[in-house]
UniProtKB/TrEMBL annotation:
Domain DUF1206 stretches: 22-86, 110-177, 203-271
Name assigned to this protein: DUF1206 domain-containing protein
Transmembrane segment boundaries: 19-39, 68-85, 105-126, 155-173, 205-226, 246-267
UniProtKB keywords: Membrane, Transmembrane, Transmembrane helix
InterPro entries: DUF1206 (IPR009597)
Any matching Pfam family: DUF1206
Length: 275
């Protein structure tokens, strides 16, 4: 049996898909917590970071929080493995030509990005589950500082900033065009459910994209000023939005959008990905 056939078999296994659904629910819960922390930041309550690490820290402090973090972490690992299997399935298309090759390249890049995101979030969740989690803003500043010490480090940070901004713009376009619906099999859903999924996805992707653009902008500012402290991640992006004119309302809108994406993830867990 070839690697591609093995990956296809693994990716379609009921056990992995069910675990991946747990991971999608976990991903949704993290976004709902980020939205809640962002609202608290907007209106003067709470002290946790409005970021993934802040959300996981908040969860770790709740009763049964650490066992839940283990469940979230394992579910996210399953999500990462699911996307890794998808990469192997699409690798065969890279040897083709024309549109087929372009589609395979896009699919591989998308799945690889998801593996990195889900894997990193799973690692972070498990660190908080074991009591060794830390601030994502501090981690990003330390990473940026380390990259600055490399030959051409300032250029590398600038390139990373452009990539993050590009991801944000891509997500906003994806939300505006509703192209995310092409990835979901909603044939079992009612017309009303499909409309809800579309609206949640649109609002969610637009809000997430806007947040990514601000994160990338802060990273670019760090590269320009050669100051790693300017690279403050998602929490810094939320605080930057808060400082803008009508910042409380703008941050509240972004928080509502991120919450919408969280609920969208629950629907994604309900309806499988198209293959």
């Amino acid at each position: 049996m070839s690697a591609q056939q093995t990956a296809d078999r693994v990716g379609r296994s009921d056990a992995l898909q069910n675990l991946a659904r747990v991971g999608l629910v976990a991903y949704g819960v993290v976004h709902l917590l980020i939205a809640w922390l962002s609202l608290q930041l907007a209106w003067g309550g709470g002290g946790e970071e409005a970021s993934q690490s802040g959300a996981l820290q908040t969860l770790s402090e709740e009763p049964f929080g650490k066992p839940l973090l283990w469940v979230l972490g394992l579910g996210l690992i399953a999500l990462a493995l699911w996307q890794a299997a998808e990469i192997v399935r699409h690798v065969g298309g890279l040897s083709g030509s024309g549109d087929a090759k372009k589609k395979a390249v896009v699919a591989v890049v998308k799945c690889l990005a998801k593996v990195v995101v889900y894997g990193f979030l799973a690692f972070t969740a498990l660190r908080f589950a074991t009591g060794s989690g830390s601030s994502s803003s501090d981690q990003q500043q330390q990473t940026t500082s380390g990259v600055f010490g490399l030959p051409g480090g300032r250029f590398l940070v600038g390139v990373a900033a452009l990539v993050v901004i590009g991801v944000g713009v891509y997500q906003m376009v994806k939300g505006a065009k509703k192209s995310f619906m092409e990835e979901i099999d909603t044939s079992p859903a009612s017309a009303g459910q499909v409309r809800v999924i579309e609206r949640l996805g649109q609002v969610g992707y637009l809000a997430k994209g806007a947040a990514f653009v601000v994160v990338g902008g802060l990273l670019a500012y760090a590269a320009i000023t050669f100051d790693p402290e300017k690279s403050t991640g998602l929490d810094g992006a939320m605080r930057t939005i808060l400082q803008a004119p009508f910042g409380q309302w703008l941050l509240s809108l972004v928080a509502v959008g991120i919450a919408a994406f969280g609920v969208f993830c629950f629907f994604r867990a309900r309806y499988p990905q198209r293959t």
